[in-house]
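S., here's the first fold you wanted:
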Amino acid sequence: MSDGFPDFRLGTVLATSFTATLTERRGEAVERVPTPQRLVDWLTVSGLAVDSCTAAQLELARELRESIHAAATAAAIGDTPPVSAVRVINDRSIESRASAVLTPEGTRHWRLSSASRVEDALGVIAADAIGILSGERDGKLALCASPTCQAAFFDTSQSRTRKWCDMGTCGNRQKKARFNASKGKRP
């Protein structure tokens, strides 16, 4: 925990890392961006720094997060994403004024229209989700095998058989539970 808040779960895929700002969805949910400032912190460590965030912008972010989660979950199980989720993702993408720029090192970087445009940062996240959901990116959407988590994640492993959204948390927890069960211990 940092500053009294749970640590962020940062992955390599922006959209699914964003959905991981709410974890343990099937157990005791852990909100990792409970305040506007905490969303600013998450955006900063994710390469989308903004100066400030309002309560209304935090609500837009949470709506996008839940829409991405719903669409990714549906895609992972072979269902059609909910129309309302698709609408929110598209709206956030369209409303953004962020621009992709090429760095001298040859990598893509996102430039927001201003340092306080949370909507631009959300647009970048929505665009990443669109790339994943449309099948444009190489990988497979899957659901975490942890019964308390069930987070949607984007599996880019060579075999596409990853079971856990994060090996450091869900994977280790499940391995420990299996080990303790095999030894006749309680987890």
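And the second, which I think is the more interesting of the pair:
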Amino acid sequence: MIVVGAFLAASTAHADEFVRGDCRGVVAPSAALKYDTPEHARWYKRFWTGDCDHLPLCLPGAPNWNEVVGKLLAKGGPKEQPALLPKACRLGQLIGLEWSRDKKIKHITSGDLRVFNSMLDASGDALRGVDLVDAKARVLTNTR
């Protein structure tokens, strides 16, 4: 009975995860992250999924990080995917957690997201593009 309860709890937590399946296990589960407010958590979900969930002044849809990772993987091709996937997923968590914070305290803005997207699009090499965006995001968030 305990095993069934543990399985159901794990299944429920997994079912509530909105980060794309191939990023799970690479990044921390969304439910385990520390959010400043409930709205911070909802904006983080928006970053990954494009779902506004009644957020004020939110535009639903693309771009969202689940789609960005897919485009990066397609651009990188099969040879780069083993190195590219974990980097792209971790980058999404880094950028998304900061961008989704209250505008008075966040260090990554929607303007930065547009710059990051342009950098990824302009890069002829998806892995190099992710590395460049990662370096810029770390400078903005003061993380190393």
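Why I say that: Residues 21 and 66 are 9 Å apart (CA to CA). The two ends are 45 Å apart (CA to CA).

Talk tomorrow,
H.
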